[in-house]
Predict the structure.
Amino acid sequence: MDTFAFLAQGLAVAVEPMNLLYALIGVTLGTAVGVLPGIGPALTVALLLPVTNGLDPAGSLIMFAGIYYGGMYGGSTTSILLNTPGESASIITALEGNQMARAGRGGPALATAAIGSFVAGLIATLALAFLAPWVVRIALVFGPREYFALMILAFVTVSAAFGDSALRGLTSLFIGLALATVGIDGLTGQARLSFGVPQLLDGIEVTTLAVAMFALGEALFVAAQWRPGEDEVLAVKGSVWMSSRDWARSWKPWLRGTVIGFPIGAMPAGGAEIGTFLSYATEKRLAKNPEEFGHGAIEGVAGPEAANNASAAGTLVPLLTLGLPTSATAAILLAGFQQFGLQPGPLLFATNPQVVWGLIASLLIANAMLLVLNLPLIGLWVKLLAIPRPWLYSGILLFATLGTIGVNPSPVELTMLMVFGLLGYLMRVFQYPIAPVVVGLILGPMAEQQLRRALAIAQGDWTTLVSTPIAALLLGIAALALIVPMLMRLRGRGQVLAQIASDGD
Amino acid sequence: MTSANGPGQPGTGRRPDGAALTIGLALIGFGALLVWDATGIPDKAGYAGVGPADVPKLIGGGLIVLGLLTGLAGRKAATHRAPPQRLGAVLWILAGLALQILLLKPAGFSVASGLLFACTAAGFGQRRLYITVPVGVLFALAVYGLFDLVLNLNLPAGWLETTIFGG
């Protein structure tokens, strides 16, 4: 069967009334958390994981993916109206979008962000549908050594390639890897780092760590810098509709942003924000009037917003086809699959095609829902921004602990939540990135198992790791991704890398 | 997080950076813990030549190296300068979390979480506890009702929950 037939099959799954409802809940929640400063899609999915334990797997995954897409839409609203990015991929949108809102052009800024997100989401989701079967075909020949090389590449790109300090990124990654060794070793059953505490034998739950780092750490950090009354929400003045001139200036950046964002999301290269920075730079270079940039150029909103949504779809390519998460949200989505006993990867396309293709098809539907939710109903979302911070963060903390209490109300688990929350706070204070910890925790055990499997097959011969062209190539790229940025920083080019830092969602 | 005053800027102060030294020592300690724990693991390397003890040793060694590098960087310049923090706010929220852990079993979900809610609000400057405590408890009670009755999530019940929703 070709992709069209699979997609048609998936659409049949996605339009089932219950799945439509799950998608609607997902995109609504996703938009809300995208709008609210301080909570992102990674955290929301982590909070919902325990709640969906007893629900239908396909429906829950459709909901999670809806949250992911919705978060990308909602983040732009906060950036434009509050100048506080709702999630990290919207930092660039805040640059031009907030200037447009200050100039009374908040409506068109929101419109070009929403329509650009729709266009990019549509194209990128179709690209995902057509690319995935190809990657699956390649992935079928992957053995343990190729997977190990792929994970090493993911480690390097998530932690060391971008951001302003390889030392800080690698430290974050190693903290995650160290936490990953706690518990029973998957291959031999040996207990490690558990110090006789029975609760530690199960290892550290990804959801506990993610909720602690993203919710508690963020709340503590925001509270510690909090000065009452400094946020200013700009009212949406005038029409949200774009003039024909706005359309003429927007459609090319939308398409360019999509073309830039999708491959960056699809490569194991970290979060969605890198594509937004590249798109912004491209639009600035191609613009007829570059002096407008920094004072509210619509191209600077249209391009990065499209790139941001396209890379969200791109991230799903390695996640679904290889089981490889390349951002914090993807890592949590992987935990979501595993909760239902599904392991993303080439086999999932063979064993559960209705889940995979239903999910991809439902993304197309979710995308259309988001356009409706975000344009006519924009006023509703803006009201969310008016919730006073004390109440907002109190509610976030209540929900953050609720997830852990619901699954495992033991004092040990809650104490871990508190300790990791404090760790997340301290890491924010001293500018350590958070995402590598989560990615290290979830990928660490997988990488270790693949390494030991590869070496067992080769009877302990380490050269096996570079004995196939694919594995050697992947490890070579990983080495380059580690060394080249270090040289760039040494030669004083670190500023560029600092700007495309990978952080948060 | 990666603004212009971030760590990419070399510090101006010549004094050793206390925070960097502390972080470096903590990383070395954590790495040493991993290595020490791994030395107690029996060697089950088998055909692979790499057993359950080797990866923790590798990661522990990596942490020790990263700790040394962090400490060395801090000796030359202030690499880890933090903006001023409102420690009171942090303590309020941590106290709320500790209260919740302690009171969860004896007082039930709603009271424990209501106090966390009020403490967090206090951390954000909303100190009127006579408002925030009742609001928090009522909010937590509504959440309890929703999750316990609709979604079948088992939350610890106290006298308040059993009185209202039944045992």
